[in-house]
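Tutorial, part two.
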Amino acid sequence: MSQVAEAPEKSGDVGAYEGLRIRSLTKEFASFTAVKSLDLDVPSGSFFALLGPSGCGKTTTLRMVAGLETPTSGSIELSGKDITWDKPYRRPVNTVFQNYALFPHLDIYENVAFGLRRRKSKEVDRSVREMLQLVELESQTRKRPPQLSGGQQQRVALARALINSPEVLLLDEPLGALDLKLRRSMQIEIKRIQTEVGLTFVHVTHDQEEAMTMADTIAVMNQGVIEQMGAPAELYDNPETTFVANFLGQSNLIEVEIRGPEGDFVVVDMQGTLASIPTQRTHVQPTVGEKAWVGIRPEKVLIAEVGASIDAPGNSIPGGVVSDVSFIGVSTQYLVRMPWGQEIQVFEQNTGRRRLFRQGEQVDISWHPEYAFLLDHHQDASAGVDKVDAPS
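Running the prediction step on this input gives:
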């Protein structure tokens, strides 16, 4: 699968790039290539996420930036300085790991002060107290790590890393050991801390919601390359590959035949119904007669009783039968089996203004054309679906 994310061009070498710059970074192991000629620019002060399933190369990339893995080839620059071959302790970066890596025999104050004491800093007390205030742990200074909750230990790990004033803070699956409720509150907390300190955060995660909640920019990785890079809303609303469409949220991918361009749209034959996709959301050459995938997010699909008016300018697709109904509180999730045998996912908010449809009930579906996207049929429609997480 080819890399579609393009790194920003160098600005004529006038002054150093203020951020993390990776060029042609490759890491080969004996039996496989984990990272393949990766190009990446991370602007200074940004919150950047590397998102992908296990084995995609995201953690290997982070470890090369940290100096914990040696690249096979390529370069890593930070604020214009080549750090590719520098020892980890000589790099202006710090890493926060999933397991916190705190010293259990030291109290919280001394854990945070550890780096400053090694450098014989004269500002230890003031700096430690400022950091503990930042992570809201001033009252816990004399406790030891085992006496704290997982979320509190993660805050200590953040404070210990931030007190060294790194140019880049690397976060390696930092919330993976926390339960769901605590993980969500810590997502907001880490983003608050990043905004307050203004440092560059590079966050590795397999959790799509976590990346979209925290990051300014997400790079979706797959098999050692970046499939697509951009703002969370951009990647979600207009994915360029089947992998991104399936891995970042859920998508319905329907096989169609291209009829050809028509104004600002590409018209396709979708199992007997004509549908239109905006040209700017078309990620395949619109060759007449060729097959493609129309993609539509489940929450963008509208459902109605047979023959009822649907609030969408697109053509209604008749003949659906509700095959499954899942009530999950804020929304109801339907599976609708279409005449050609495919089950379409439909998510509808529970506003109380409409009744729930029942299993076995016949329905029509539709959507607004501007929400659909068109993808290359040569790509696997199941790419990115049900990836099981493991160390990467």
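Residues 250-376 form a domain with the OB fold (Dihydrolipoamide Acetyltransferase, E2P) fold (CATH 2.40.50.140). In part three we will examine how such features are distributed along the chain.
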